[in-house]
Structures are given as structure tokens and as C-alpha cells.
Design a protein that fits this description.
alpha+beta, Alpha-Beta Plaits, binds flavin-adenine dinucleotide, 40% helix, 5 strands, five-stranded mixed beta sheet
């Protein structure tokens, strides 16, 4: 079956905290695993950047459900494309908080004009490479 990757960015509503992120991750793991969705959700500087991988139907259904969530607004689709293989296959959904750790800020700076996390101003390729590097960082921890 064809595999798809979807990447979007959105703005967290005021007051979203680390515990909300954990709540979203737990719910996502529970929902995504049975339908074969894998991916990663990064959150920092009031922005979410998420990648979803799976069949076209399940990725579309999951994205549509996420769009209705009141914990974020102004979602913008960055990429929806057919892929040969998964990059984030180990995770039903890994949530990563983009904090001030120098290693994380260096990865942001590598793909952006500053070390502020602003995926809205990054290209699709930059977003994907950023997510891949963050994944490598967390896999090696
Ligand atoms: P329930 O958890 O029972 O939720 C019912 C309704 O309440 C939904 O409309 C939900 O949006 C809303 N809701 C639940 N908790 C809260 C809360 N604390 N504050 C405000 N509204 C709330 N879900 C996935 O399945 N996979 C994902 O990969 C995924 N990624 C997400 C990424 C982001 C940035 C966000 C904000 C949410 C994400 N979610 C994801 C959650 C998704 O939006 C739905 O909340 C969830 O899938 C609904 O699960 P449920 O059908 O079991 O309903």
C-alpha cells in the first residue's frame, strides 16, 4: 500500500504547557498505533510542527481530526506527499519539547535564520530535515 507523509505547522493557544504535550502524545500513541500512523510532534516557542506517516486515508483522517482540536489554531499544511519508506517508524507519536538546550537550538539555527523555533518560515525540506535531526538526537539519548 502506498505510504504518505504529511507535515503541518500550527500555533498553540495561550497556556499550553508540557503536561498538555504529554496528554496529546499519550492520546496520539493510543489512536495512531492501531491504524499504523507514525510520526513526531515538536512543540516550542508557541508553535507545533508535526509529521504524520501512514496510508493516505489514515493520515488524512488523523489530520482532519487534529485540525478540529481547540488547543491549536492557524494550521498550515507544509507537505503531503507519497514516500518510499517511513523515517519515524519507531514512534506512534513522539512528542519533543523544543527547549533552550544548546544542541536543539543549534539544530534550529542550522535550518533557520535564527535560533527561534519558527517552522512557519521554513521550507518543507528544512522542516523535514529538522525533524529528522531531532529524531536522531532523541534516539541516541
Ligand atoms: P477525546 O480525547 O475524547 O477528545 C474529544 C474532543 O475533545 C476532541 O475534539 C478533542 O480535540 C477535544 N479535547 C480533548 N482533550 C482536550 C483538551 N485537553 N483541551 C481541549 N480540547 C480537548 N490525535 C491523534 O490521534 N493523533 C495525533 O497524531 C495527534 N496529534 C495532535 C497534534 C496536536 C498539535 C494536537 C493539538 C492534537 C493532536 N491530537 C492527535 C489530538 C487530536 O486532536 C484529538 O484530540 C484526538 O485525536 C481525539 O481523540 P479521541 O477521539 O479519543 O477523543
Amino acid at each position: 500500500m502506498a505510504l504518505y507523509r504529511l507535515i503541518y505547522v500550527s500555533q498553540a493557544v495561550a497556556g499550553i504547557s508540557y503536561s498538555d504535550l504529554i496528554d496529546i502524545m499519550q492520546k496520539s500513541e493510543k489512536n495512531n498505533m492501531p491504524v499504523g500512523i507514525t510520526g513526531m510532534l515538536s512543540f516550542g516557542d508557541s508553535m507545533f510542527l508535526q509529521v504524520l506517516e501512514g496510508s493516505r486515508r489514515t493520515v488524512s483522517q488523523t489530520y482532519n481530526r487534529i485540525l478540529g482540536d481547540k488547543r491549536h489554531v492557524n494550521a498550515e499544511l507544509i507537505e503531503f506527499s507519497e514516500i518510499e519508506h517511513r523515517d519515524f517508524g519507531l514512534w506512534s507519536m513522539k512528542a519533543v519539547q523544543i527547549d533552550n538546550h544548546p544542541e536543539i537550538r543549534n539544530i534550529i539555527l542550522k535550518y533557520s535564520s535564527s535560533s527561534t523555533f519558527s517552522p512557519i518560515s521554513m521550507t518543507g525540506k528544512q522542516c523535514l530535515n529538522f525533524l529528522r535531526e531531532i529524531m536522531d538526537l532523541y534516539q541516541n539519548k
